[in-house]
Design brief:
Blueprint (H helix, E strand, L loop, with lengths): L1 H8 L8 H24 L12 H22 L7 H27 L15 H4 L5 H33 L3 E2 L9 H21 L2 H20 L3 E2 L1 H23 L4 H6 L9 H17 L1
Antiparallel strand pairs: 1-2
Length: 289
């Protein structure tokens, strides 16, 4: 029975999922990219520092809506995909995003107290003078949960699910390897969000390995006479544009000595919010003055 299903899967096709890709891109921009912006713009009196901010509520909604959309995307795959791997990935995704919610909430609230994201935890003026000094270790632990553990448990299953879905986006019919105009228009916002995700999440290694795996799969399937369908092309081209955006971002900030100090090593990819606290926040303060 399973062999029959797998044989049929190869010849199934799927139309472009405009509704899912649109909702996916929209909620990514609003609930993920928009959450720190909402926290900064909305009056502080509405969300006291000892209570969840507007961005935290955005994050909570993201943690519910995103796994739901990912599951719906997997359901629409024309290929039978490994359900156990998908379920474990979704569970890990929710747990990692929830860990990140707490750490990110505290770290962003520290901005109102003078915390500077372009500096390390121990180099921040409001942190290095804490007494006793063991409190600094606690803030470093919080930073670890936010930037390392939370990001890893959030983004690894996220990209894994996208890749699992991508494995089912192949068709033997060349005419179906085309994107509708709606997909072309949606590709720009989608690619720009992935740029933000990779740079702010500091997950370039994970992203580039996923992209290389996608390239290898495309070449492997091409030998079998299979090509990407419209959904596969949308995802693949979005990743290509994302790579170009990252290259442009790095090239623009290549000679920034302060950001170079925070992001040492071979892979130099500054975070957008570190750039904001270093350059843009000072500009806004000068204008207000």
């Amino acid at each position: 029975r399973h062999s029959v299903v797998k044989a049929e899967d190869t010849f199934k096709t799927s139309p472009f999922h405009l509704d899912l890709w649109f909702y996916f891109t929209l909620q990514n921009w609003v609930l993920d990219f928009g959450r720190p912006i909402a926290m900064i713009i909305l009056p502080l009196e509405w969300f006291p520092l000892n209570k969840p901010s507007a961005g935290d509520y955005f994050h909570m909604a993201y943690n519910v809506i995103t796994p739901f959309l990912l599951l719906k995307l997997i359901e629409r795959s024309p290929k039978t995909l490994p359900r156990s791997m998908v379920y474990v990935s979704i569970i890990t995704f929710v747990m990692g995003a929830s860990i990140h919610l707490v750490g990110d909430s505290v770290n962003h609230r520290l901005i109102f107290s003078g915390y500077q994201h372009h500096l390390s935890v121990r180099e921040n003026p409001i942190i290095r003078n804490l007494k006793p000094e063991t409190l600094i270790d606690s803030f470093e632990l919080l930073y670890y949960y936010d930037e390392y553990l939370g990001h890893s448990m959030w983004y690894i299953p996220f990209f894994l699910i996208l890749f699992i879905y991508f494995t089912g986006c192949f068709t033997p019919v060349a005419e179906q390897s085309r994107m509708p105009m709606a997909a072309v228009l949606l590709m720009g916002p989608s690619s720009l969000y992935y740029w933000y995700l990779v740079t702010e999440g500091q997950i370039f290694i994970l992203y580039i390995f996923t992209f290389f795996a996608m390239m290898a799969l495309v070449m492997h399937q091409k030998r079998k006479g299979l090509v990407l369908d419209s959904n596969g092309l949308f995802l693949f081209y979005s990743f290509i544009i994302t790579l170009l955006l990252i290259a442009g971002w790095v090239g623009w900030l290549w000679n920034d000595k302060i950001l170079r100090k925070k992001y040492p090593g071979v892979i130099y990819i500054p975070e957008p919010w570190a750039f904001y606290t270093l350059h843009m926040s000072n500009l806004h303060a000068a204008k207000e003055g």
